[in-house]
Amino acid sequence: MSEGRVAIDMGTNGASKHQPAGLGQQRRGATVSFHNIDYKVTIGGNCLCRKKGTIKEILIDLNGLMKPGLNAIMGATGSGKSSFLDVLAARKDPAGLSGEVLIDGAHQPPNFKCLSGYVVQRHHDSDQWDLW
Ligand SMILES: Nc1ncnc2c1ncn2[C@@H]1O[C@H](COP(=O)(O)OP(=O)(O)O)[C@@H](O)[C@H]1O
Ligand SMILES: [Mg+2]
User: Fold this and answer.
1) Where are the annotated segments for Disordered (predicted)?
2) What pLDDT score does 123 carry?
3) Percent share of the chain, pLDDT over 70
4) pLDDT in tens, 71-81
5) How far is the CA of 23 from the centre of ligand 2 (A)?
6) Taking the chain, what is the end-to-end CA distance rounded to the nearest angstrom?
7) Could you please report the per-residue DSSP string of 28-88?
8) Tally of CB atoms within 10 A around 84
9) Which ligand is nearest to the Cα of residue 132, counting in written order?
10) What is the pLDDT of residue 19?
11) How many angstroms is it from 83 CA to the middle of ligand 1?
12) Pocket perturbation via mutation, ligand 1, pick of 6, 42, 56 by most ligand atoms within 8 A of CB
């Protein structure tokens, strides 16, 4: 992360400890784990005139676990929250990405991008849209 750090709140997820009768065998959501996540982009390069770009490291060595329920990704603006969410949802260019995201301990299926999603949220005090 270039301008701060992303904190991932994994200690208190919102899953209820009490299950209604008969739900014991049902799936209650997936566990997402991420291992050694690095993400970088190249800025300013131009293949035509062989100008090399500069590499900007967006995410550096992120590791953690998200259990079913409510999880939070917290950090200052520019710390990499949206980039990290994109990585979890398989929406980043694999070229600048390394590390692993596992769903219940298995690799994401090839169509994971179609199975996952998130909602963009509008700031109340500005005209800008932002990904949380
Ligand atoms: N494609 C990109 N090219 C250059 N810089 C980027 C790109 N994507 C993200 N960044 C930079 O990475 C940092 C993290 O961005 P972002 O993930 O949007 O943070 P947050 O969601 O926490 O505000 C910012 O400095 C942003 O400018
Ligand atoms: Mg964001």
Assistant:
1) 1-26
2) 61
3) 69
4) 999 999 999 99
5) 36
6) 16
7) ----EEEEEEEEEEEES-BTTTTBPPEEEEEEEEEEEEE-SS--EEE--TTSSHHHHHHHH
8) 23
9) 2
10) 47
11) 6
12) 56
Token pair listed for 125: 């005090």
What pLDDT does residue 11 have? Answer: 44
Between CA 40 and CA 126 the distance in angstroms is 28
- Ligand 1 atom 16, closest CA: 80
- Any ligand 1 atom below 6 A from CB of 3: yes
Domain boundary assignment for the chain: 32-131
Closest CA to 34 of 117, 83, 99: 99
The answer to whether the CB of 65 is under 6 A from ligand 1 is no
Question: Ligand 1 centroid vs 15 CA: distance in angstroms?
Answer: 30
Residue 94's φ and ψ, nearest 5 degrees, are: -60, -20
Which pTM was predicted?
A: 0.77
Greater model confidence, 119 or 32: 32
d(CA 113, CA 85): 12
Distance 30 CA to ligand 1 centre (A): 27
Residues sharing a CB contact under 8 Å with residue 12, sequence separation 6 or more, in sequence order: none
